Amino acid sequence: DRALGSMEDMFFTDLQGLVPAETHLCDLSAGVSPLPGGLKFADSAGAFHYEESGKLLSVTSNRFIHWSTSGHSVQLVEQSLDTNLLNNWVRLRFNHCSVLPGGVSIQETLNNVVILICTNQSVHRLLLPHPTRMYRSELVTELHMQSIFTDVGKLSLQDSAHSAVIPSQVGQAGSPQSCSSWISHQGEAHYALASPAGGIMVVTLPPHDTPGSVSVVELKQSSMMSRLSGWMPSAIRGDQSPADLVLSLAVRELEEDSFIFALCQDHRLRMWSLREQACLLEADMLEYLPSCKGVRRLSGQGHRLRLAFSSTTGLCLGVYLAVPQRGQFTVLQLVATDNNRYSLEHISSLLSTQETLVDFTLTSSDVWALWVDESNITVVKYINFEHNTAGQWNQVFVQPPPEEEVQIGVDLDPRETYLEVLFSPLRFTASAIVKALQIYRRGSERISDVSWEGLKKEVTQAVETELQSSVTEFEFSQEEYRQLQVEFWSRFYSCCLQYQEAQSTPLGLTVSQHTGMACLLRKGFVSFLLPCFAVDHLYLSYEQYLFSEEETPVVSRDVLQLVQCLRLVSDAVSPEMAYEMEKALDYMQSPERAAELVLENMLCNDSDNVIVDIQNKLQDIRNPTAAMMVLLREMDLETDSELGSNSAVGLNTRISLSQLYGSSSAVSLVCQAVCHVAMTRALFCRDLLILQKLYLRFGDNVFLGGGAQLLQLQQDLIPRSSHLLLSYHLLKHISQNLASSVPMDTIDANLQHLTVLELSDSLSPQTVVELFYQTVGRRIIISQIYSQQQTCSVLLWNHMISNVVQLLAQLLWPSNPGFLFPECLMANCQFTQLQEYVRLIGPWCQVNIGSCRFMLGQCYLANGEGQKALQCFQEAATEVEKEEFLMKLTGSEDEESASSPRLQYYNKVLRLLEDVGLPELVIQLSSLAVTEAVKQWKHLTLTQNPDSSMQLDCLRQLVVVLCERSQLQDLVQFPYVNLHDEVVSIIESRARGLDLLTHNYYELLYAFHIVRHNYRKAGTVMFEFGMRLGREVRTRVGLQKQVNCYLAALTCLRLIRPEYAWIVQPAAGATVYERPGASPKRNSDGEFSSEPVRRQVDILELDDLEKQYILSRCRLTLVQHHPPSAAIAGSSSAPELVSLLVQVGLFDSALSLSRTFSLNLTPVFEGLTFKCVKLQFGGEESQNEAWSWLAANQLTVINTKESSATDEAWRLLASYLDRYPSANGQHHRYVINKLLSHGVPLPDWLVKSYKRVDAPSLLRLLLNFDLLDAAAELVLEYVDAVLGRGHQYFGIEKPLCATSPPAWLPYTSIDQLLQALNETQTHSSVRWFTSVFLVGREWNL
User: Boundaries of each NUP160 helical domain copy (predicted)?
Assistant: First the structure.
């Protein structure tokens, strides 16, 4: 434990900062010409920290300026971790000049920030307002502030008072190689330049508010002093540069004098006094270098010099001697003696094996150094030069560059994979992607939208356009197109890699002496160095950086041994198995099972005997379970402590705290730190879980404790490791999950009726964790930090940022009782991300289960999945009394609410559903709520509730709930006391307002009345139900239910006395919906109505209901036989329905319907006759089709095998003529007329049947169709029948005889027949028929 605690403040992690988006470009001309030779200086960088950057109650808290030089330009950026600075980036370009390394210096005065710049031909001074002078109040309450560079374009940068040309006598010998500049106490600007001929030239500008001229002073030793100092002439050394050529300069003002420290090419350090213009001190640095043999002959081209001053140690000098293969840092202290004499006291010498030093900085206690190794990898280390006797450098874990190749799964889309890699945190900066995009487009067009979403669209469009333009074929296989996608996306990705690598080039280091904040200055951005937590350091450190066994206790030694085993496991896990493990966690599979699969793969592919090495190391661990407990305890972020409050802090402090670490840079920085911690610890837990599974395999071979420790490992440690792995995997996921851009009006609408949190109008964050920190987490974290400490005036970077990262991770930790993160996602409409969050924690997290179900219901509601949302809301109700979020949602602090929190929860959710506009969900959820509470409060609510409106509301909920849950018996038998009519009204309103087939409220109301023996009302309900079914549900199912309804209504009316067997039906056109609140006397224009509105009603008796029943039954028969008729059958009248039935051959139903409604049967007989005609002349196909409609009618049973469909149709017609007689044989006449009109010979049975009924009419029909022979035969037979021969075939009861009265014959028809025969027949036929007829006439017929 002591080892873990001591490492926490020693190791740092590199995290990328943000890149400014706006630039001021200023050109400066010093009136000089370019020097011959085109000398170029290396790029450099530096930073300036405000004096009050570590003070909380200050405008400049956590505020600094950093710059970088490249060729003839200087780029200056002002950044703040508390507020977003506007116009904070400026680029100065010096024509025909190159900026010297270290040629930028920034100092602050009471009223100004002064920027001093040295080029190889000129010096410049920029005078900018101090931030404290830009605001009237020291307290900053705005989220955005103007930078000091806002008005830089208005300055006269080329004014002679603020710039000067370096004198030509120095310039003739070449350009200065190094420089240093400062502001004196008198306000003068001094520029110390290393002369190429040796010595130092100081150029001085007068104070900005005092007129004066430029002065030049040259500091150089005489030749005599050179000989006395033991200098060797350059000709003897073999080079052309002087021995006192200055390589590095540093300046410090002490006792109203400026001391210039110069580290020269001859390895000597000289201190010059500007006031006395004399060298006060000279020291040979090789004296502090062990075994310096042969080094003195070499020129020290890479020597560096840095100064550090503190009130406790005074002025310290850090000297880096660039000795081949073994550079050395020497720390010296300047000591003043009597008579203005000075000496150097050696403090420490620190060896370094690195080759190329880029930069180093010196603080009052540490040396920070930046190298680039042979592989061009950035290396940063630091060391305490006072108390580190072993010379052990501390490691800084620099963020590795993005992968050179992107692995794309077989089932993944290349475009989505590359976009995810490009725009995930900790990989690429926006500026690198923008530059790569501009090059990829091969154009200079400016990208206007630099937001992450806009940039992603631009990238997608550019790559897809390039891909489409290169396609020459019109058809591709899926695999070919995938290969094209990979090719073009990898090309763009390589462009991004190149620019990211260029922007990641390290240029310098800076460490604030006020806050201790360390930053790595790169070419394109700034990397902040954050303290690394102890457990992360153990996992990331190389073995040589861990403590030795002799220096640590037993437990710590076991921890270190265990971590070494974890490093071996990590190296043995292949990338493919690491991907499988990651995918298993994403798919919510068991981590333990996934670890076993990885272990199996390791055992099968252990070609390097890694498992044996691990086993050997495990045997050296005395108490592995205790070591694992230490690691698990360090990584577990679960806490029960309540959030702090800053109520005891003063007003000014609270205002400053409201802005602390609130800028977009700080938001990105803190959340990247959490992401980095989560990624590191997820790997840690993965390897630990694999190692634990390996322990189980080894068993007693490595466990000294035996079975007890194995049991503890299996039952306690492995489940805890699995839980931690899932938790950190979740943190990593949300830290990389991008937030969606949502309009503010959508967010406002979402927050109207739920518990809401404060929203900030800040910049759109990139990830959901940044969104949470920006809107909710930062305020809580800062309050927590300052509630636990006494003073809050000093902002120490290591302490503050570690606490912020730790507390943010605890707020995000899923096992902690707080539920602020999901609540923030819900409030900001991040429903997709929230749904994914709930999905990931659902199977294993046992905290806030109900709250998560409620949030998932919110997501479903936003996606339009109402039923799923309702299910989630119902599941969350069981946890209302247990979870803080749900209790806060229900307002359980109120005494009345506390007594029934679940009902209050349902009330809240019902309001939400009402506002969303989902009445059907309101009804269902109300049903659930009432059902759960009905056993406790239904009698009390319905009978003793003094509020009538609330009483009706409760009654309505009770009815709906019991109906929806199919508890109809309880609903029907419930004693409603004096609320009987209200119940009926509620059910009626529900029945009339909801879908008929989905809900059964009519049937419920029917049962309600039947139980109470109110049969007439029950019949009325079912008749209304049937009427609505006919109008609204024109389907077979609807017609079937309509028939059942009418039958039930008939049954009800038959159960009561005949005088009461009637119901009331509103007449057609009388169902007028009146406007609510309308006057009964005046119309809509305000005038008196001519007559009162009267509502007309119809009284329906049993006969009327029977007619409706038969009509509906015929409709159902029609639809059953011919389904396409369903759309028109439901609204057809009786005559229309008869026609439809005849068309499909349902003659029995047509005749029954016609007789019920007293309709003429002629259409039925004509329709059947026409079908007989069609069958008579139709083929085999028509015969087969006829059997379907013939079977639907009642056929005569004929015991003959030769019976055909045509015969059956004629028999059916004959049976109808016999069954339904008509006056004067009207039906026969229509049938014969139909047959003759189609030229069909009359069947004998039809002629015989009609002769018995009306022979004269048959004669007239034959004459009408010119059937003269048949007519003549009929007349002769008729005459014979009248005379007594066959009179029974003509329906003549009494034939003609001597005693009978005279008989009547159709003389007119007979005369017409004679006339027709005379015109058309032969003479013999005419004579025969005439003789016969005349004989009859003579007999006086």
Answer: 555-772
What sections of 352-477 are H helices per DSSP? 414-422, 430-441, 452-470
CB neighbourhood size of 173 (10 A): 11
Q: Which residues pair with 307 in a beta bridge?
A: 317
Residue 622 CB-half CA count within 13 A: 7
Is 0.70 topped by the overall pTM?
no
Contacts of 828 (CB under 8 A, 6+ apart): 739, 742, 747, 759, 771, 775
Parallel, antiparallel, or unpaired for β 257-264 and 246-254?
antiparallel
Q: What sign does the CA torsion over 935, 938, 943, 944 have?
A: positive
Token pair in block for residue 714: 């299996």
Identity (one letter) of the amino acid at 208? Answer: H
211 falls in which pLDDT band (50, 70, 90)? Answer: confident
Question: How is residue 1058 written in tokens?
Answer: 């005949």
Compute the average pLDDT of residues 531-553: 69
Name residue 553's amino acid.
P
Residue 1084 confidence (pLDDT): 56
**What is the tens place of the pLDDT at every residue in 442-487?**
765 666 656 777 888 888 988 888 888 887 776 778 888 888 888 9
User: What are the DSSP E strand ranges found in 403-562?
Assistant: 506-511, 518-522, 526-531
Q: Report in angstroms the alpha-carbon separations of 768 from 655, 735, 855.
A: 26, 7, 16
Share of the chain above pLDDT 90, in %: 21
Q: Is 786:646 a contact under the CB 8 Å cutoff?
A: yes
CA dist 490 and 1301 (Å) reads 121
Handedness of CA 565, 567, 568, 570 (dihedral sign): positive
List the one residue out of 1151, 1148, 1149 whose CA is nearest residue 1163.
1151
Cα separation of 245 and 196, whole Å? 7
- Residues contacting 203, CB < 8 A, separation 6+: 123, 164, 166, 167, 190, 191, 193, 214, 215, 216
Asked whether 769 and 674 are in contact (CB, 8 A), the reply is: yes
Alpha-carbon span 313 to 335, nearest angstrom: 10
Angle at 990 between CA 984 and CA 995, to 5 degrees: 140
Q: CA-CA distance, 430 to 16, in Å (whole number)? A: 11
Tokens representing 16 are 């990328």
Average the pLDDT over 650-676 and give the result: 81
Q: What is the pLDDT of residues 1125-1141, one digit of tens each?
A: 777 877 788 888 788 77
Residue 250: is it exposed, middle or buried by C-beta count within 10 angstroms (0-12/13-18/19+)?
buried
347-357 tens-digit pLDDT: 998 888 767 88
Name 534's Cβ contacts closer than 8 Å, sequence gap at least 6.
3, 4, 5, 6, 7, 8, 634
What 3-state class would DSSP assign to 167?
Answer: coil
Q: Say if residues 1232 and 1255 touch (Cβ distance below 8 Å).
A: no
- In order, the DSSP letters of 266-314 are TSEEEEEETTTTEEEEEEEGGGGSSS-TTTTTS--TT-EEEEEEETTTE
Token pair 């790029």: residue? 43
* Biggest distance spanned by C-alpha atoms of the chain: 189
Does 674 or 171 have the greater pLDDT score?
674
What integer pLDDT is reported at residue 1299 of this predicted model? 66
In this predicted structure, what is the pLDDT of residue 551? Answer: 47
How much of the chain is in helix, strand and coil states, percent to nearest 5? 50, 15, 35
Backbone dihedral angles phi then psi of residue 1299, each to the nearest 5 degrees: -100, -5
Element (H, E) at 171: helix 168-171
Give CA separation, 1063 vs 99, 157, 782, 1066, 1096, in Å: 105, 101, 76, 10, 14
Question: For residue 1299, what are the CA distances in angstroms to 190, 1293, 1294, 1302?
Answer: 166, 14, 11, 9
Compute the radius of gyration of the chain from its Cα atoms. 52
